[in-house]
Amino acid sequence: MNSRTHFRLMVLYVLVGAMLLVLMGRLWSMQVLEGAHYRQVAADNRTRDIVVPAVRGLILDANGKPLVRNRTALVVSVDRTALSRQKDRGATVLTRLAGALGTTRDALEKKIRLCGPGIKRPCWPGSPYQPIPVDDRVDPKRALQIMERQEEFPGVTAQVQAVREYPEPDGASAAQALGYLQPITQGELDKRKGLKVTGYSGVDLIGRDGLEATYDADLRGEPGFRKVLVDSQGRVTGTATEQAPVPGGSLVTSLDAGVQGAAENALEKAVREARKRGDKADAGAAVVMDVQTGRLLALASYPTYDPGIWTGGISQDEYDALLGKKKGEPLISRATQGQFAPASTFKISSVAAAVRDGYDLNGTYSCPGSFNVGSRAFRNFEGQAHGSMNLHRALVVSCDTIFYKFAYEQWLRDGGTTPKKNPKDPMVQMARDWGFGARTGVDLPSETEGRIPDRKWKRDYWNATRKSDCKAAQEGFPDVAKSDPSRAAYLKSIAKENCTEGFNWRAGDAANLSIGQGDMLVTPLQLTRAYATLANGGRLVVPRLAQAVVRPDGSVARRIDSPPAPRLPVEDKVLRYIRSGLAGVTKQGTAAAVFNGFDFKKVDVAGKTGTAEVYGKGDTSWFASFAPVKKPRFAVVAMVSQGGTGATTAAPIVREIYEAMYGMNGHKAALKDGKPAEGLPRLRYDGTGANP
Q: Are strands 250-253 and 59-60 parallel, antiparallel or unpaired?
């Protein structure tokens, strides 16, 4: 053996020795240093983690009646991931499953496809990595076929689960207030770290609207888990560890099912009657509030829908109907999201603004049929003149021209179209003090702010619309001119004025604001809060629906109190004066005919009608009220869009609600002794309420 060969052998020995040392070092590292980790990995290959859903809590009314509860259902779910790993991507399994469920493979494929741009429902809006429920009303015999022949249905599960049910006690739906559940999306999973999912309704569905959304964390509970042992075929052979789920708490609300049902019934009835008279009556709302606490006893919206439509999936036609204008967009709560001009119901703010600006609370004022604001005549309703009167009478007969005069004089003192450096704008400032133009703070999502038109809003609006106004000023309105030349000429002149000086806060803007017209917008809930503030002596209570979260054992997990109520900067004597004026509306004023025959001895009602003109549409009908007059406890407000005058449509709604609350005119009293339920209801073992 020559020296070169010997050298090569030595190098080979060294390399082999080094490789053996590296291998031994790696084995030592895996078995000693990282032994625990790899033992866990090996164990995980023999076990599977199963998230056990928690039963979602109930939503109850103030007396413990369930507004939302759970029912037991056999739910069949499909795992998209498991199907995708099969040779035919699950086509055979879906065909077999369709036969077992009595449906078609095409229908199942649509249910498990992922929602996205251009994809019509049914589709799955949740995470693609969780099982997708395809049927929650399965016949037990069909479900048994799936469970017993699991080898024929890989990726398919059939288990007993709790799904949402809406019993509507006393006819109370409250769909928009309660909200609904929808599958959690991957984006939400990413945001909510540590949230366990299974594809089952108790864990993966989250509140999308209403109380279900606001108090989702309280209602959903804590899921449990089960670690099961499996063999090489994936079959369960035993349970390693298990932790039981913690059921969600039940949410006790201030809603009273009897009052809520009466409000919904009165609202729907009034809409039908308005349509018979020829009014379009396309939407409405009714609100009942405890003026002392801000608790809501009823929050009704029209049109409404069956919230059970979400359970078990929703078709594209059903989904389009909820969002589309053809059905009136029933998902929108007109009580908290609808915005409408308040008309004369707003005069409670205008009286307070005039008095704070120096007008005599006990003075006498002229109420002509019309009043010139600059060069334009602003008229009373139907041009009616009422002679001289005090502000009490002005509220009773709803005189507009007195308020036009107040607003015009205030506008002139502020400098007119060339305002002073810091104009007072008394009507605008007082409207803000009453809480208009801002969210009330109700414990519901997506509340709208309404709108108080002021100088800044006017300029911002002008900047946004100037280009289109200037174009219309040049081109006119040829389509309108074909059928109505005079109207086309009027619209062109308005467009020209808006183009050149639309940023100005004009006298007409101030005058319209004083009677709740023009660009002024409020929600029915905002107006209810304002009347509650008037009734309780000046406390701007914050509306609340939820009272407490109660554990399954009946103990109180937490109470939900309203924030402190700020004070309205209006003197007590002014509020008393306004209350006395409104007390006459139902007896000698604009609502006297509607309340003819009403038992005022049982409950004395004060209120104000409102008829808001809307360009291109029918009038919005309003009636805002509080009762009893001497010791106010409730504020009740009703509104119907395109419903005609306030006395014709909205006032009858309010009357019927009071009759149902106090047990009048054939109604069984919804309230005991005319008071809301006090304290929290005791819960039975099944989660429903006993007497409070």
A: parallel
